[in-house]
Specification:
Distance between the termini: 8 Å
CATH topology: Rossmann fold
Number of strands: 4
Largest sheet: 2 strands, parallel
Helix content: 40-55%
Strand content: 5-15%
Structural class: mainly alpha
CATH architecture: 3-Layer(aba) Sandwich
Length: 261
């Protein structure tokens, strides 16, 4: 929802989502650029590759590089800019990406903070019941990956997704606590009720917000599509569950399952 609302502006480009691709980027960055050895045997780029060190058979070649930490950081920045920022740059716009699969144990936000100092985090929050329902509707697969969720595993699947929601929230809020001046928390329910809540984001970007009727069309289209699909899918699971005696069904199935994702 937030991504679609932001992209209604001609000068905003929010790409994605990309199945958590930034996690290996961050790990590669910290393995390479943040090693205590990266600057030990590196030569400035102007001096050329340290070939004389590579050719010495009496010296170990480990960590002989034609770059140091500063050059590595710039290379990672240029890579992401080349992937996502080129189009926005040509149009004098703001760019970013929707990434939702990071939690404690990932270092993605710290990586972005090093590579793009001063970047902004827009953090949409949502009631956990509705968030779990959205995950179940978006990825309705059983443990083997086939279509349809096996009823015996329903409660365990809900619990697993709720724990994921908690982990992601803690991770993002930890960054908010460390950089409150660059984190904007937006409640999903507020956006659905009042599109003017998005105005603060455009103010932060020093942009005039799009017309309210355009924003409302985005919300109405999203709510209409996901509510119908969700109601149909969850009603099917409900019928299958009712035929299994003794199987407990989550009490919140009706109130939250038919809401939008």
């Amino acid at each position: 929802m937030l991504q679609r609302l932001l992209n209604t502006h001609e000068a905003v480009f929010i790409w994605g989502e990309h199945s958590g691709f930034l996690a290996p980027f961050a790990e590669a960055y910290y393995t390479l650029a943040c090693s205590s050895r990266i600057d030990d045997r590196a030569l400035p780029p102007a001096a050329g590759p340290p070939l004389h060190q590579l050719k010495r058979y009496d010296r170990p070649p480990a960590w002989v590089n034609p770059f140091g930490k500063a050059e590595a950081r710039q290379a990672f920045r240029e890579c992401l800019c080349a992937l996502f920022g080129a189009s926005a740059g040509r149009l004098d716009g703001h760019w970013g990406f929707k990434e939702i699969r990071y939690s404690d144990g990932h270092r993605v936000l710290d990586f972005l903070d090093e590579v793009f100092p001063g970047f902004w985090l827009l953090f949409p929050t949502r009631h956990p019941k509705d968030a779990v329902a959205s995950m179940m509707l978006s990825w309705p697969t059983n443990e083997s990956g086939s279509e349809g969720l096996a009823i015996p595993h329903l409660e365990a699947s809900c619990d697993r997704r709720l724990r994921h929601w908690l982990d992601v929230g803690r991770y993002l809020l930890d960054f908010r606590d460390r950089a409150p001046h660059r984190t904007l928390v937006i409640r999903y329910e507020d956006l659905c009720r009042d599109t003017s809540r998005i105005v603060g984001v455009f103010d932060t970007l020093h942009l005039d917000p799009p017309p309210q009727d355009r924003l409302k069309r985005v919300i109405q289209a999203r709510l209409g599509r996901t509510t119908l699909a969700g109601a149909q899918r969850w009603s099917g699971w409900s019928r299958r569950a009712s035929r299994r005696p003794g199987r407990r069904w989550p009490r919140w199935r009706v109130s939250s399952a038919t809401r939008s994702s």
